[in-house]
Amino acid sequence: MHVLILGGTTEARRLAELLHGTPGLKLTSSLAGRVASPRLPPGETRVGGFGGAEGLAAWLRDHAVDAVVDATHPFAGTISFNAAQAATISHVPLLALRRPGWAPVEGDRWHEVGSLGEAARALPALGRRVFLTTGRMGLDAFADLDALWFLVRSVDAPQPPHPLRMEVLLDRGPFTLDGERELLRHHRIDVVVTKDSGGAATAAKLTAAREARLPVVVVRRPPVPEGVPVLPDTEKAAQWVRAHLEQGSFPAID
Protein backbone atom coordinates (compact mmCIF):
# COMPACT_ATOMS: atom_id res chain seq x y z
CA MET A 1 0.00 0.00 0.00
CA HIS A 2 1.38 3.40 -1.02
CA VAL A 3 0.36 6.55 0.87
CA LEU A 4 1.30 10.06 -0.24
CA ILE A 5 1.54 12.66 2.54
CA LEU A 6 1.29 16.24 1.32
CA GLY A 7 3.38 17.80 4.02
CA GLY A 8 5.77 20.46 5.19
CA THR A 9 4.09 20.80 8.59
CA THR A 10 4.78 19.46 12.08
CA GLU A 11 1.70 17.24 11.74
CA ALA A 12 2.94 15.78 8.45
CA ARG A 13 6.33 14.90 9.94
CA ARG A 14 4.68 13.38 13.00
CA LEU A 15 2.35 11.30 10.83
CA ALA A 16 5.32 10.00 8.82
CA GLU A 17 7.09 9.14 12.08
CA LEU A 18 4.05 7.23 13.36
CA LEU A 19 3.64 5.24 10.14
CA HIS A 20 7.29 4.74 9.18
CA GLY A 21 8.26 1.09 9.31
CA THR A 22 4.67 -0.22 9.24
CA PRO A 23 4.80 -3.58 7.44
CA GLY A 24 3.17 -3.46 4.03
CA LEU A 25 3.14 0.33 3.88
CA LYS A 26 5.15 2.60 1.58
CA LEU A 27 5.25 6.28 2.50
CA THR A 28 6.12 9.26 0.32
CA SER A 29 6.13 12.78 1.77
CA SER A 30 5.83 15.70 -0.64
CA LEU A 31 7.22 19.12 0.28
CA ALA A 32 6.47 22.31 -1.63
CA GLY A 33 10.09 23.46 -1.54
CA ARG A 34 9.36 26.98 -0.30
CA VAL A 35 11.69 26.65 2.70
CA ALA A 36 15.42 26.51 2.00
CA SER A 37 16.26 23.91 4.67
CA PRO A 38 13.11 21.94 5.51
CA ARG A 39 12.96 19.38 8.30
CA LEU A 40 12.68 16.13 6.39
CA PRO A 41 10.39 13.35 7.61
CA PRO A 42 11.34 9.66 7.62
CA GLY A 43 10.65 7.66 4.50
CA GLU A 44 10.81 8.75 0.88
CA THR A 45 10.47 12.45 0.07
CA ARG A 46 9.90 14.55 -3.02
CA VAL A 47 10.22 18.32 -3.32
CA GLY A 48 8.34 20.65 -5.66
CA GLY A 49 4.95 21.04 -7.27
CA PHE A 50 2.99 18.54 -9.35
CA GLY A 51 1.72 20.83 -12.09
CA GLY A 52 -1.80 21.40 -10.83
CA ALA A 53 -4.59 18.92 -10.22
CA GLU A 54 -4.06 17.05 -13.50
CA GLY A 55 -0.33 16.70 -12.79
CA LEU A 56 -1.00 15.39 -9.29
CA ALA A 57 -3.60 12.93 -10.61
CA ALA A 58 -1.05 11.64 -13.12
CA TRP A 59 1.55 11.28 -10.36
CA LEU A 60 -0.91 9.30 -8.24
CA ARG A 61 -1.58 6.94 -11.14
CA ASP A 62 2.07 6.60 -12.19
CA HIS A 63 3.20 5.81 -8.65
CA ALA A 64 0.28 3.53 -7.75
CA VAL A 65 -0.80 5.64 -4.79
CA ASP A 66 -3.58 4.09 -2.71
CA ALA A 67 -4.41 7.09 -0.52
CA VAL A 68 -3.45 10.74 0.03
CA VAL A 69 -3.24 12.58 3.33
CA ASP A 70 -3.31 16.35 2.90
CA ALA A 71 -1.32 17.49 5.92
CA THR A 72 -0.29 20.82 4.43
CA HIS A 73 -0.46 24.15 6.22
CA PRO A 74 -4.05 25.32 6.87
CA PHE A 75 -3.38 28.26 4.52
CA ALA A 76 -1.96 26.19 1.66
CA GLY A 77 -5.29 26.46 -0.13
CA THR A 78 -4.12 25.84 -3.70
CA ILE A 79 -2.56 22.43 -3.08
CA SER A 80 -5.54 21.37 -0.98
CA PHE A 81 -8.01 22.12 -3.77
CA ASN A 82 -5.70 20.50 -6.33
CA ALA A 83 -5.51 17.42 -4.11
CA ALA A 84 -9.30 17.24 -3.90
CA GLN A 85 -9.61 17.44 -7.70
CA ALA A 86 -6.79 14.94 -8.26
CA ALA A 87 -8.33 12.46 -5.81
CA THR A 88 -11.63 12.67 -7.67
CA ILE A 89 -9.97 12.25 -11.08
CA SER A 90 -7.86 9.27 -10.00
CA HIS A 91 -10.42 7.73 -7.60
CA VAL A 92 -7.94 7.76 -4.72
CA PRO A 93 -9.18 8.28 -1.13
CA LEU A 94 -8.18 11.64 0.36
CA LEU A 95 -8.01 12.69 4.01
CA ALA A 96 -7.31 16.21 5.28
CA LEU A 97 -5.28 16.44 8.49
CA ARG A 98 -5.92 19.85 10.03
CA ARG A 99 -4.85 21.09 13.44
CA PRO A 100 -7.70 22.93 15.19
CA GLY A 101 -7.73 26.71 14.80
CA TRP A 102 -7.24 29.14 17.65
CA ALA A 103 -10.18 30.58 19.56
CA PRO A 104 -10.25 33.93 21.42
CA VAL A 105 -10.48 33.92 25.20
CA GLU A 106 -11.34 36.61 27.72
CA GLY A 107 -9.01 39.56 27.36
CA ASP A 108 -8.20 39.04 23.70
CA ARG A 109 -8.62 42.01 21.35
CA TRP A 110 -8.98 40.14 18.10
CA HIS A 111 -9.97 41.65 14.77
CA GLU A 112 -10.82 38.78 12.44
CA VAL A 113 -10.43 39.34 8.69
CA GLY A 114 -10.77 37.22 5.60
CA SER A 115 -7.47 37.95 3.84
CA LEU A 116 -4.08 39.63 4.08
CA GLY A 117 -5.50 42.51 2.07
CA GLU A 118 -8.21 43.04 4.68
CA ALA A 119 -5.56 42.84 7.41
CA ALA A 120 -3.55 45.58 5.71
CA ARG A 121 -6.60 47.83 5.44
CA ALA A 122 -7.35 47.36 9.14
CA LEU A 123 -3.86 48.20 10.41
CA PRO A 124 -3.70 52.04 10.18
CA ALA A 125 -6.54 52.36 12.69
CA LEU A 126 -4.93 49.91 15.13
CA GLY A 127 -1.26 50.83 15.47
CA ARG A 128 1.98 52.04 13.95
CA ARG A 129 4.49 49.34 14.95
CA VAL A 130 3.37 45.99 13.58
CA PHE A 131 4.54 42.49 14.42
CA LEU A 132 3.78 40.63 11.19
CA THR A 133 3.83 36.86 11.69
CA THR A 134 2.20 35.70 8.47
CA GLY A 135 5.43 34.43 6.89
CA ARG A 136 7.37 35.72 3.92
CA MET A 137 4.64 35.10 1.34
CA GLY A 138 2.02 37.77 0.72
CA LEU A 139 3.98 40.73 2.06
CA ASP A 140 2.99 42.69 -1.03
CA ALA A 141 -0.39 43.25 0.67
CA PHE A 142 1.41 45.55 3.16
CA ALA A 143 3.86 47.16 0.73
CA ASP A 144 1.99 50.48 0.45
CA LEU A 145 1.73 51.13 4.19
CA ASP A 146 4.71 53.48 4.33
CA ALA A 147 3.53 55.18 7.53
CA LEU A 148 3.82 51.91 9.48
CA TRP A 149 6.89 50.04 10.72
CA PHE A 150 6.95 46.23 10.47
CA LEU A 151 8.80 43.49 12.31
CA VAL A 152 8.50 40.53 9.95
CA ARG A 153 9.27 37.07 11.29
CA SER A 154 9.82 34.22 8.85
CA VAL A 155 11.95 31.13 8.34
CA ASP A 156 13.57 32.47 5.17
CA ALA A 157 14.23 36.04 4.06
CA PRO A 158 11.32 37.67 2.20
CA GLN A 159 11.64 39.04 -1.32
CA PRO A 160 10.12 42.28 -2.70
CA PRO A 161 7.55 43.65 -2.86
CA HIS A 162 7.36 44.17 0.88
CA PRO A 163 6.89 47.05 3.34
CA LEU A 164 9.36 49.92 3.01
CA ARG A 165 9.99 50.27 6.75
CA MET A 166 10.72 46.73 7.81
CA GLU A 167 13.02 44.69 10.02
CA VAL A 168 13.28 40.96 9.34
CA LEU A 169 13.64 38.39 12.10
CA LEU A 170 14.66 34.98 10.75
CA ASP A 171 13.43 32.36 13.19
CA ARG A 172 11.52 29.11 13.37
CA GLY A 173 9.09 28.03 16.09
CA PRO A 174 8.26 26.81 18.60
CA PHE A 175 8.44 30.14 20.46
CA THR A 176 8.35 30.62 24.22
CA LEU A 177 6.03 32.97 26.08
CA ASP A 178 8.95 34.77 27.74
CA GLY A 179 10.57 35.23 24.35
CA GLU A 180 7.40 36.65 22.82
CA ARG A 181 6.88 39.02 25.75
CA GLU A 182 10.41 40.36 25.36
CA LEU A 183 10.05 40.69 21.59
CA LEU A 184 6.89 42.81 21.93
CA ARG A 185 8.51 44.96 24.60
CA HIS A 186 11.87 45.42 22.89
CA HIS A 187 10.37 46.41 19.53
CA ARG A 188 7.60 48.52 21.09
CA ILE A 189 4.95 46.59 19.14
CA ASP A 190 1.43 47.97 19.30
CA VAL A 191 -0.42 45.56 16.96
CA VAL A 192 0.11 41.93 15.92
CA VAL A 193 -0.94 40.29 12.65
CA THR A 194 -1.24 36.52 12.37
CA LYS A 195 -2.92 33.82 10.36
CA ASP A 196 -5.12 31.38 12.26
CA SER A 197 -2.59 28.60 11.85
CA GLY A 198 -3.54 26.85 15.07
CA GLY A 199 -1.22 24.63 17.07
CA ALA A 200 1.03 25.33 20.03
CA ALA A 201 4.30 26.18 18.26
CA THR A 202 3.40 29.83 17.56
CA ALA A 203 0.52 30.39 19.99
CA ALA A 204 2.62 32.13 22.66
CA LYS A 205 2.42 35.42 20.75
CA LEU A 206 -1.35 35.45 21.34
CA THR A 207 -0.88 35.12 25.10
CA ALA A 208 1.82 37.80 25.10
CA ALA A 209 -0.42 40.15 23.11
CA ARG A 210 -3.33 39.49 25.47
CA GLU A 211 -1.17 40.29 28.51
CA ALA A 212 -0.01 43.52 26.86
CA ARG A 213 -3.61 44.35 25.81
CA LEU A 214 -2.53 44.65 22.17
CA PRO A 215 -4.93 44.28 19.25
CA VAL A 216 -4.37 41.18 17.12
CA VAL A 217 -5.50 41.01 13.49
CA VAL A 218 -6.33 37.35 12.80
CA VAL A 219 -6.68 36.14 9.22
CA ARG A 220 -9.28 33.37 9.03
CA ARG A 221 -8.14 30.13 7.42
CA PRO A 222 -9.68 28.97 4.13
CA PRO A 223 -12.13 26.06 4.27
CA VAL A 224 -11.19 22.49 3.48
CA PRO A 225 -12.57 21.56 0.03
CA GLU A 226 -16.15 20.34 0.18
CA GLY A 227 -16.56 16.62 0.61
CA VAL A 228 -13.06 15.96 1.93
CA PRO A 229 -13.10 14.20 5.34
CA VAL A 230 -11.10 15.94 8.08
CA LEU A 231 -9.30 14.66 11.16
CA PRO A 232 -7.77 16.97 13.79
CA ASP A 233 -4.66 15.07 14.90
CA THR A 234 -1.95 12.75 13.65
CA GLU A 235 -2.84 9.77 15.82
CA LYS A 236 -6.34 9.56 14.33
CA ALA A 237 -4.94 9.98 10.83
CA ALA A 238 -2.47 7.16 11.45
CA GLN A 239 -5.34 4.96 12.68
CA TRP A 240 -7.23 5.75 9.46
CA VAL A 241 -4.29 4.50 7.38
CA ARG A 242 -3.67 1.42 9.52
CA ALA A 243 -7.36 0.50 9.37
CA HIS A 244 -7.03 0.15 5.60
CA LEU A 245 -4.08 -2.19 6.01
CA GLU A 246 -6.09 -4.35 8.38
CA GLN A 247 -9.52 -4.17 6.72
CA GLY A 248 -8.69 -3.55 3.08
CA SER A 249 -10.78 -0.37 2.93
CA PHE A 250 -10.70 3.09 4.47
CA PRO A 251 -13.14 3.68 7.33
CA ALA A 252 -15.78 6.37 7.09
CA ILE A 253 -15.16 9.52 9.11
CA ASP A 254 -18.03 11.12 11.01
Helix- and strand-based class? alpha/beta
The helix-strand sequence is EHEEHEHEEHEEEHEHEEH
Report the average pLDDT across residues. Answer: 93
Low-confidence blocks of residues: none
Approximate helicity band: 25-40%
The number of helical elements comes to: 7
Shape: elongated
Please state the CA-atom Rg, rounded to the nearest Å.
Answer: 20 Å
Strand order of the largest sheet: 3-2-1-4-5-12
Strand-residue proportion: 15-25%
The count of DSSP E runs of length 2 or more, i.e. the number of strands, is 12
Biggest β-sheet description? 6 strands, parallel
| N-C termini distance | 24 Å
Description:
This protein has 254 residues and is α/β, with parallel strands linked by helices. 29% of the residues lie in helices and 22% in strands. The chain is built from seven helices and twelve strands. It has helices spanning 10-19, 52-62, 77-90, 116-122, 177-186, 204-211, 234-247; strands spanning 2-6, 26-31, 44-47, 67-70, 94-97, 109-113, 129-132, 149-154, 166-170, 191-195, 215-219, 230-231. The strands form two sheets. It has a six-stranded parallel sheet, sandwiched between helices. Strands 6-11-10-7-8-9 form a six-stranded parallel sheet. Helix 3 (77-90) links the parallel strand 4 (67-70) and strand 5 (94-97). It is elongated. The two termini are 24 Å apart. The mean pLDDT is 93.
